[in-house]
Design brief:
Largest sheet: 5 strands, antiparallel
Helix content: 10-25%
Radius of gyration: 21 Å
Strand order of the largest sheet: 1-2-8-5-6
Order of helices and strands: HEEEEEEEEEEH
Distance between the termini: 60 Å
Number of strands: 10
Amino acid sequence: MKVPGLILKQMYNFGSLENVPGGVRFSVKNRLADATLTRLQSIKVNGNEVPLANLTLVFSDGVKQHTLKAPDVSASKPLPFPLARTVAISAKNGALEKGKHEIEIAVEATPFGLLAFKVSDSIEDKREKPVAVPYDKEDNYSHKIVRQRLRFLEEFAGVKPKHIT
């Protein structure tokens, strides 16, 4: 089954590329359909292939976190890759400079066959997490969420509101 490259690129979590001790980490998310990874064929960073022995896959099954070495994924020991599962891939290839980098990913997956794509992502300075006012999309006017927003206001502004109408 041929999957268009534009759709395959959406599997990559843009902004996930980061330096970690000994190398880099990035993540992919299954946005296609339930699948099974039967082989990690290759990962290239800036055109340089990372040996499979230097690749680690980390994912959660909803209960616990699992870690696998890339060579451990095979047709006889496949990795379930259900829709919406995220897999972090660590590559021991040394740290990357700040700026744009090219990542090439090639895996074999049932029922798709070979899935290969190339993306660009950047190593950037760590950004501070944006400040977010508490919000409840189910009931944004309940007493509970209003109290959470008041506590947030007190902690963020450092003052206790006197009059809330």
